[in-house]
Every structure is written in structure tokens, then in C-alpha cells.
Amino acid sequence: MPISLRAPCAVVLCAATLAMQASRAQTVYKCTVDGKVSFSDMPCPAGAASATTLAVPAAPAADPAAASDLARQRKEAAKLEKARHQREDQDARAADKAAQAAAVQRKKCGKLKLNKQWADEDVRRASVPKLDNAKLRAKRAGEALALECPQ
């Protein structure tokens, strides 16, 4: 999880935990049986040496600042998530564009390699009077290939 989202998530988790604890506030019983003290939400058994009902303090009133702080943090988390989605979309578009450019380059290199291959074949099949022209075409095809497709 990104560091920028940890604090808002931690606050939400703490608020939820406090809300759950406040809703579960019940009577607590302190029982002493055979010299051992135990605490329970059930009344003490009949054979308990001592039984005490502990008063549970009322849950504190909701802090209005906490609610506004939570709302602000949720809004900030939503803004950060939206920014992350925008970055991911932008990165995906850039990757698609790069892949498309690479495909165009591969196609161009393939065409230049084929032209070089044909020019080399023309040199091998050329008659003596046309040999110099064929060699020049093969040399230029090789130079174009080397320029556009360095390997």
C-alpha cells in the first residue's frame, strides 16, 4: 500500500474499532473461584467466593472534529486514488504508443533487409557491364539498413 494512503486507512480503521467497542459495552463480572480471579460477561457461577459487578464507563461522546477529519481524509484518499488511476491510464497510453512505434520500426527494418537481400542477389546475377551499378545499389541498400536499423 502506498505510504500516502496508509495514514487515511489507519484513521478509518481506528474509528471503526472505537465504534465497535462502544457498541459492545456491556456489564463485566469479576469472579473469584478457588482463589483465581476471572472476568466475564456472564454472571459468576453459584460457587464463586466473591462476585463483583464492575461498572463500565459510558462511551465518550463522538468528537465532531473527528468526523470532519475523517471526511477530509476520505476525500483526500479519493483524490489520491483518482490521481493514481490517471497516472496508470497515462502510462498505459504511453506503453501502447511505444509498442506501436516499435512495430512500425520493425516493419521498416524488415523492408530494408529485404531490399538489401534483393540488391545482393542482383549483384550475384548481374552481367559485367551492369555489375558496378548493382554493387552501388547493394552498397546503398546496406547503408540505409545500417542507418535505420542499427544492430
From TrEMBL:
One matching Pfam family: DUF4124
Signal sequence, renumbered to the chain: 1-25
Domain DUF4124 positions: 16-67
Keyword field: Signal
UniProt KW Signal keyword: yes
Segments for region (Disordered): 65-99
Highest taxon in the source lineage: Bacteria
Compositionally biased spans, kind Basic and acidic residues: 71-96
Protein name as catalogued: DUF4124 domain-containing protein
